[in-house]
Design brief:
The chain is an alpha+beta fold and 222 residues long. The protein has a domain of 140 residues: 2-Layer Sandwich (TolA/TonB C-terminal domain), CATH 3.30.2420.10. The protein has 4 helices and 8 strands; from the N terminus they run ααβββαββαβββ. The strands form 2 sheets. Strands 1, 2, 4, 5, 7 and 8 form a 6-stranded mixed β-sheet that branches. It has a two-stranded antiparallel ribbon with strand order 3-6. The longest helix is centred in the first third of the chain and has 27 residues.
């Protein structure tokens, strides 16, 4: 009895080549697809923190208060009450009463010829008045705190217009040493002074006077 042996079908060489090509194409396509999927994946998330600059704000230092003994002397303002001599003459301190300054009439021009308290009130000089004004109230000047803390002393020379009521109407700083330290304190004090008015022929009149105010932290003058 004869057996039928299946015949092996021979593949055509062209079929083999096509199979290889298809396999390669599929493999390459799969690789490209996988590569594309990798590229479209989201980038890794990184955390980036900017540089933080830290600084410290300090409160201003408190000034040390002077000792009690020094504070008690800060309000001591020596007031030299004297007439200021004309140029080329030595000035001197002679009396505690305020004397009228020597002021030539030629210096009194413009608005200074009239007091603000009355349009027809003339301002006279020491040469023309019969009696100069006398101080009846002189509140002390306050010593500037910064100057006291630094031990600074000095003086201010003022020119005051005292009207016929004995009130200081104007205050001008003529000179000061050191400059820019005591002027304001001197003006604030002088504007509050009051006087018995200068007299001329039995009538009160306005007059310009000069005042030197010395600021000292001890008992000695400048």
């Amino acid at each position: 009895m004869a057996t039928n042996t299946p015949k092996t079908r021979k593949l055509h060489p062209l079929h083999i080549v096509l199979a290889i090509v298809v396999t390669l194409v599929l493999n390459i396509g799969g690789m490209i697809l996988m590569s594309g999927l990798k590229d479209t994946s989201p980038p890794p998330v990184t955390s980036e923190v900017g540089k933080v600059t830290t600084f410290e704000v300090q409160a201003p230092r408190q000034k040390k208060r002077p000792p009690a003994e020094k504070r008690s002397r800060q309000r001591v303002t020596k007031t030299q009450v004297s007439a200021v001599a004309p140029p080329n003459l030595p000035s001197s301190i002679q009396s505690p009463a305020l004397l009228a300054a020597a002021l030539d009439l030629s210096d009194m021009i413009g608005s200074e010829l009239q007091d603000s308290s009355g349009p027809d009130e003339l301002i006279m000089s020491e040469k023309t008045v019969d009696e100069p004004p006398r101080a009846i109230r002189q509140p002390a000047a306050l010593y500037p705190q910064d100057a006291a803390d630094q031990g600074i002393q000095g003086y201010v020379q003022l020119r005051l217009l005292v009207n016929r009521d004995g009130i200081v109407k104007k205050v001008h700083v003529e000179k000061a040493a050191p400059a820019g330290v005591f002027e304001e304190a001197a003006k604030q004090a002088a504007i509050r002074w009051s006087f018995s008015p200068a007299m001329f022929e039995g009538q009160p009149v306005s007059v310009w006077v000069r005042q030197r105010m010395i600021f000292s932290l001890d008992d000695g003058g400048l």
